[in-house]
Design goal:
The chain is 73% helix and 2% strand. It has a two-stranded antiparallel ribbon. α3 packs across α6.
Length: 280
Amino acid sequence: MITSIATSMAVRIAEKRSGKFGSSVYAGRAAQLVERNFLAFKSSNWLVVISGFVEPVFYLLAFGLGIGKLIGGVTDGNGHTVSYAQYIVPALLATSAMNGAIYDSTWNVFFKMHFGKIYQAMLATSLGSLDVALGEIGWALLRGLTYSIGFMLVVAPMGLIPSWWGLLAIPGATLIAFGFASVGMGLTSFMKNFHQMDWINFFMLPMFLFSGTFYPISVFPEWIQIIIRALPLNQAVELIRGLTLGNLNLAMAGHALYFVVMIAAGLFFTTRRLTALFMR
């Protein structure tokens, strides 16, 4: 009975979308996949989930409030002196958004694709490859956003967000999470085994350490600075740091555009890849 009802619904949805632009890859049902992820999330390992939130807090306590007392004040890029904790908070916020989005859009997607065979089952229904991409990326975005809000609730009462423009850091972090999730899922669709997945961590750790998180990239030679500025985390750090410290300039529009391009490219290639893998 249930199977018959589900089949009838799928047929009605397919008939409704028939002939419309993008109907072969999109059925307007990405929200159903987000709902499915939420139901699965309730039975997940909470220690793994919480670890993504507490990690930047530990970095803040160790570096910002610990080593920061030895360093004293640093300049914010406009010649103004801020505490070391205020300097690294936006970088940790950007990193928190990245980590939350990357975890769900890489390892979780990898398991569903190669072990759970979930996408094969989904794409046998009325769902299209763009529905799956939007649903998974949307869920990863929610995780990144949750980590960002949680971190902001910790640092704001401590006086580490000196500008009211810092309120825009949350939508900024959402944009960052969206960009990383879109690209992360697209890259994961090409991974065949766990050894290849290790390349994600191999890339993310040095990006975290060298993207201006704990010190200005001006300490590096010019040619290294050019490479670092091209990295997505450095773009994220500069965007959030400008907002939390109130240093607004036209360059921030470029940082935001960087992630808009990441989102568009990630959605396009993820949809193409899922279509090629599961809708032949």
